Amino acid sequence: MEKGGVIDDLEVIQYAYYSYKICRGLVFDQIYNFRELTQIPELFSSIEAENALRLIEVEVNYFSDVLQTKSEFVQSVMGYVCRFLPLGLMVTALVRFQSELESYGSFLIPNLHIITTYSLFIWAIFQEVMAFIMAVLSDWTFAALLPDARLREKNSCISKVKRHVCSTLCGFLVLKRPLWYPCVCEVKHEHEVLATPILLRRWSGSILTYNFIRYCLKCCPTRIHYHRRDCFSILIDKIIHLSGFVINFLSLALLFEAAADIIKKASKYMGKHKAFSWPGIVIARGIWLWSLIIKCLCFVVRKIFQFLLLKDFLDEMKYVSREPLTKDLWKFIFLELKDKCRYAGNPKNIRQLCTARGDCVLKDRAWESCSRELIPYLADVSYDHSLLLWHIATELCYNTNTNEVNNERHDECGFCSNNYPEFSKILSDHMLYLLIVEPKIMFAVVGIGGIIFQETCNEAKRFFTENGLGPKQLKRAYEQILSMNTNTVNEVPSQSVLFDAVNLANKLKTLQQENGVDI
User: Fold this and answer.
1) Which residues touch 167 (CB under 8 Å, ≥6 apart)?
2) What is the DSSP string of 102-152?
3) Which helix (H) or strand (E) is 321 found in, with range?
4) Within 10 A of 19 (CB to CB), how many other CB atoms are there?
5) Is residue 322 within a helix (H) or strand (E), and if so which, with residue range?
6) How would you classify the pairing of strands 320-324 and 206-210?
7) Whose CA is closest to 436, among 423, 425, 426, 451?
8) Residue closest to 415 by CA, chosen among 309, 315, 334
């Protein structure tokens, strides 16, 4: 594979399938050859970031199909036979129905029944035809027709026919290429985000994020980057937000109660005028009655959700945000992995890289003078403890950083200095999402990350309540947390990391001012 430039779509399928066959031994706990695994870093080191994203999209799609669908059976000969069998039976049934209708006459059957029967037949046949087309145009079909990426292609007649078929269908693969659209982020910086149409994309094209402070304050999640999307994507987002309306029942009840109190107070002031006093009292009592009804509904719905164990599902719908993947962020991740692959020459080095928890960053010259002060927050705590600790510190530093950054200053990788705070913010929120919502991805055995998160959340909520902070006072909440007294000692032992996170955030800000380190 040549370095640079745009890789051919068929070549992407070839190398993605080759990489999938090597890496599936790791995923499915099968025997694998370490020498073959060393060829994967060599493959990715020879291509650019955009081409690597195309290759990874196809490879991960193979793993997703194997783990969640029956794609291997569908792509087999028996699978195609089973695909044609129901299609043939439905066509035969439609022809038989048409012949019977002509023999006995349609006047004996209501027209509504005839139209309904035809509609069901046509819809079923359409579904089978579309499923067949999707199976033919899938990545598995191209992988089966193309030769192995590391073997020479034979010049036989069958190989030429396969290659010709792939070249004919290659136009469909062009439509599935990643598409990048320009957008402006919340701090008025221009970026390109991944925005492939939803019917052609291989994955969502976004990063799932979860924010601790917003969750504690019950704030709706926001995005850093917004872009113009297709109507289908907008419709799905609207349905998700509409389904979260049930969660806001209690807020609606509180709104009704506040309105009732206002009208009651207004009616007292207008008590001297009898013409205005009784309408205000009637309206206030009506609103109070509606607030009571809504509160009862809230109580019933909450108990039903707790009984059905759906509270986590509702929290995920309300507080999880989808951040579009930017080209700069993907390039940053790819270059970092590419740099780490240089040290992955043997199993020992690979094991060290996989178990690293941020201490490798402190070995950099820019952070060498600060390593003694920051290493306790990495090496002396558990992994889930460290993730939540650094997430809160990152959130506090990102939202309270008042230092102006020179937009024209670029580093050796070509990134602006103002890109790195966004990178840290998005990746930190994504790691918290994995820790809280998808803990099985992070750990083979579920740890105490959920307990640490819950106790830290309870402590943060108590702090917000004592200081009268609500969802609309987010900026003030960040400032109050940074200035809180962390020297108090809890009488009851707690797993909360809030005080440690505040100390870490203040320490990072101090290091930025004293040593000039960018945070």
Assistant:
1) 10
2) HHH-GGGS-HHHHHHHHHHHHHHHHHHHHHHHHHHTSHHHHHHHSPPTTSP
3) strand 320-324
4) 21
5) strand 320-324
6) antiparallel
7) 451
8) 334
pLDDT in tens, 348-377: 777 777 777 777 777 665 666 677 778 878
Burial of residue 383 (number of CB atoms within 10 Å: 0-12, 13-18, 19+): middle
Structure token pair of residue 233: 């994507």
Q: Tell me how long the chain is.
A: 519
Percent of the chain with pLDDT over 90: 8
Q: Which long-range contacts (CB under 8 A, 24 or more apart) does 85-89 make?
A: 86/128, 87/125, 87/128, 87/129, 87/132
DSSP-assigned beta bridge partners for residue 183 = 191
For residues 491 and 111, give the distance between their C-alpha atoms in angstroms, rounded to a whole number: 78
Q: 267-284 in b/e burial notation, b at 16+ Cβ within 10 A?
A: beeeeeeeeebeebeebb
Is residue 516 packed enough to be buried (19+ CB in 10 Å), middle (13-18) or exposed (0-12)?
A: exposed
Two structure tokens written together for 163 = 């290659």
Cα→Cα distances 424→89, 203, 396, Å: 56, 23, 12
Using CB atoms within 10 Å of the CB of residue 209, give its burial: 0 to 12 exposed, 13 to 18 middle, 19+ buried. buried
pLDDT over threshold 50, residue 247: no
> Which H or E element spans position 427?
helix 419-436
Please enumerate in sequence order all residues whose Cβ is within 8 A of that of 381, keeping only pairs 6 or more positions apart, or say none: 389
H or E segment to which residue 293 belongs: helix 274-307
Distance CA 180, CA 157 (A): 40
Strand partners, 182: 192
Tokens 């986590």 sit on residue: 312
Which residues face 207 on adjacent strands? 323
* Cα–Cα distances in angstroms (integers) from residue 284 to residues 225, 276, 287, 307, 308, in the given order: 43, 13, 5, 35, 36
List residues bridging with 303 in a β-sheet. none
Say what the pTM is.
Answer: 0.78
CA distance 399 to 393: 10
Q: Residue 269 pLDDT more than 70?
A: no
CA atoms within 13 A on the CB side of 222: 10
Average pLDDT, whole number, for the chain? 76
- Cα–Cα dist 182/228, whole Å: 9
Question: What's the rounded Cα separation, in Å, for the pair 182 and 326?
Answer: 9
**Cα–Cα dist 440/459, whole Å:** 26
| Beta strands, E only, 158-261 | 180-184, 190-194, 206-210
Q: Is the pLDDT of residue 289 over 90?
A: no
CA angle, 153 then 154 then 155, to 5°:
115
- CB–CB of 445/434 below 8 Å? no
What is the phi/psi pair of residue 208, to 5°?
A: -80, 130
